[in-house]
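Hi everyone, sorry if this is the wrong subforum. Our group has a chain we'd like a structural model of before ordering constructs, and none of us has done structure prediction before. Sequence below.
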Amino acid sequence: MSKKGIYISAAATVALAGAFVLGWFLWRQDDRCIEYPMAVATDIPTAVAVGPSGEVWFTIDFGDAMGVIRDGKLDRIAKSGRNVEPIGLAVDASGAAWFTDPAAIAIGRIGPDGKLSSVPLGTPIARLARLAAAPDGAIWFAEATGYSFTRLKDGTLTRHTVESLRGGPYGVAVAGDGTVWGTLQAGNQLTRIGTAGDMTDYELPTRASSPTDVAVGRDGSVWVVEFRGNKLARFKDGKFTEYPLPEGKAAPSGLAAAPDGSIWFGVLRGAALGRLRDDKMRFFALPRDNARPYSVAVDQQGNVWYADITGYVGMMSAPRR
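Answer:
Right subforum, don't worry. Here is the predicted structure as tokens:
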């Protein structure tokens, strides 16, 4: 299913249910999850990231704001212009939240002091995907319109152009040594960008698997979501190992590496979060049968945060097993 179709479906669901939900409670929980409904019924939480002080940021599709959860309280921070597919988000070491803003043709920033600013991309239009913060303070993002993985540092944009004719930059992650990994959704490839700017592409073993999100594990393994292939893939020592989702679980989305070495992802068709650890896949049901977790992030305690496009940001407590 296309992102547009996902968002339209989510908007309809939230519009119908939002007034009832917000009128009765500020948050909901079961024995494992706490969920925060959106303050505006048409808001669609899309990307989620955890800051160094434990604050949880999220982008809001179709809204003119960013969201943050601090000390159990959800705040909506107004910004100029309406968001359109703001699926890139990361928090740097200083606590500043960086996000893709395709409608403004810019990369936005909210500083620790709450001040908003942006860096224009200088292109007539912008189609942007995921975004990541690097250890050196640089921000990397997938720029489909620029056919590149782009580095933003000290206000300067450096574009690393994709040579593959199929292209489709989507996911991006930065390893501890500064190596950048990205996915080419249409190209069915994983791309490595070395610290010197050299680029190498690796073809995924499943054809037309539509690789999306990417993450780097604690041991240096590179993990990839194969959206259409309905698999996760690990790239290590120059080889791919694939992990198919079982029957009844489909459309993996979002990817995050936990401190204990686990890899977490959302399951759009299955209302669950998935965990891959020690080559074993396990699923954890979310409180609502219609849940659609599009993005995930893990905090330092191992709790898993998720942006549910039906209108919630939630937290699943770190499973004990």
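For your construct planning: The helical segments are 3-24. The domain at 3-316 is CATH 2.130.10.10 (Methylamine Dehydrogenase; Chain H).
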